[in-house]
Amino acid sequence: MSTETGLMAELRRVVGPRGFLDQATDLEPYLVDHRKLYRGATSLVLRPDSTEQVSAIMRLCNEARVGVVPVGGNTGYCGGATPSEDGSQIVLSLARMRRIRSIDPLNYTMIAEAGCVLAEVQAAAAAVDRLFPMSLGSEGSCQLGGNLSTNAGGTAVLRYGMMRDLILGLEVVLPDGRILDGLKPLRKDNTGYDLRDLFIGAEGTLGVITAAACKLFSRPAATVTAFVGVTDPQRAVALLSRLRTFTGDAVSTFELIPRIALELVLQHIGDTTDPLDGAHDWYVLLEIGMGRHDEQLRGAIEVELAAAMEEGQISDAALATSETQREMFWRLRETIPEAQRHIGASIKHDVSVTTSELPQFIIEACRLVQAISPQGRIVCYGHLGDGNLHFNISRPAGADDESFLRLAPNINRAVHDLIARYGGSISAEHGIGRLKREELVRYKHPVALEVMRAIKQALDPNGIMNPGKVL
Ligand code: MLT
Ligand code: ZN
Domains, the chain, ranges and CATH? Predict the structure, then answer.
């Protein structure tokens, strides 16, 4: 028996007969990333069902110097969970670790395992009249561990923060198999370095997150969802500021949508209609949640939006009158990536600047991209309240994917250089994975990179944790 066969046999023994996949058809979904940018190879996907099993797996792989690629729902945008092409790495799925270990409504906390689907975490909180506010288009399939490892953003960051802000403690298995138990659901704990924050956003390169102590919130008693037409992003920024002041920061969602994105959705996605009568160059999907009574909140927002219209800040607005209509408004925003796929290849950017500078950034970035691809269709939308834009360019109508994608290096350089001039980020919420490794080296401060490499060396000296990602 070769050494490799010996290791594989031991790993299978650790997880038991239900804890691994090794048949080609079963392995297939783990070999390709969500955007189909990468295709890797592996002979084994491990599916442990306890932290102890993860610990034993890591100890064995560390001793054998075999790379381990953790995977959650595989909904990431940067190839962070795809194994390398040479088939030398093992994939580690946490999908069977999906228990809610405990929930404490009085402390507003929950301890959940990494394999819980995000929607299950939200539902467990709702069952005790609490809110877990992380909200994403892929919440029906993405997993808590993946959300943590990529420090996910989504559509409620404006009010509740990113994943990092929603977590009090973590349980992590280190690359050598030791278990770092930091699961205390405490809001205050100033006892040295904050180790939790090392693993959040590390994309599985420092250890395997197996469970998290999550923060919960009160569920708003009333929610108003509005679809608003505006002439330009500058006015949208002013509206956000107005509503934040008016509601005492109760705006949880403020998403910018260009006309072209709405048209794509209306054309390609079923059960969608334009909520407004005329056509507007830009739209905002906004949501406000408060503890006050439904009709009171709705009436107050209606009056405020009418005043904004009177002053020329907005062009039109519709408030959702039922849960069905609210869902349809959300559908108009959440299906933009899907709708965009219908018109061929796109070159995507996930950038951030300050919210106040976002309108000017859009103008300059459009100018730069149009100089490279005059017919490219710019579909730039996103989380305006967070200064985060998905600045995507779809291939020109009638053009072919391949020749358009050849422009990617030039377009990426133009957009990211502009971002650097703004002091912004080249990856606001999607992470680095494999896709942006070189961009990270180019744009991250050299001292920050040195510190990151030192941390990686200290925790994973054999380089077995998600090799080839981030750094
Ligand atoms: C979104 O906000 O829709 C997602 O982050 C995906 C995207 O980049 O389009
Ligand atoms: Zn997004």
Answer: 3-93 (3.30.43.10), 100-218 (3.30.465.10), 222-337 (3.30.70.2190), 343-429 (3.30.70.2740)
- Report whether 429 contacts 389 (CB < 8 A): no
Ligand 1 in reach of 337 Cβ (< 6 A): yes
Q: Is 431 in the pocket of ligand 1 (CB under 6 A)?
A: no
pTM for this entry: 0.95
Counting ligand 1 atoms within 8 A of each CB, the residue from 158, 390, 391 with the most, and so the one to mutate, is 390
Which residue ranges of the chain lie beneath pLDDT 70? 1-5
**pLDDT, position 290:** 87
The C-alpha atoms of residue 222 and residue 259 are separated, in whole angstroms, by 29
Q: Is 390 in the pocket of ligand 1 (CB under 6 A)?
A: yes
Output the pLDDT for position 3.
45
